[in-house]
Amino acid sequence: MKRVVVETLHLQTEVISDVSLGDACQLCHVELEFVHALIEEGALDLADDKAVLDRGQFARLRKAARLHRDLGVNPPGIALALELMDQL
After folding, report:
1. Spatial CB neighbours of 22, under 8 Å, sequence gap ≥ 6
2. What is the CATH class of 19-87?
3. Is the model's pTM score more than 0.85?
4. What is the residue extent of each domain of the chain?
């Protein structure tokens, strides 16, 4: 009989409360132009480039970045997908 050992990896995560737009772009690996496109589509609600994202907005940007990177969804599609996820 074979013995299988399963190792688990525990990741520590930081709780992010507020993050600047520049830092958010770096953390999500997106360009500022991508964020501007999301703002134009209504997927993000930010006043200006010096804006600070709260935890909810940062999470929304992370979702948008993953939709774009992993699935190739464009900003209008991302806005629609995020709106539908909000309704769920």
Report:
1. 32
2. mainly alpha
3. no
4. 19-87
State the Cα torsion 10-16-68-41 to the nearest 10°. 160
pLDDT per position in the chain (88 positions), as tens?
Answer: 555 554 555 545 555 578 889 999 999 999 999 999 999 999 998 876 668 888 899 999 999 999 999 999 999 999 999 999 999 8
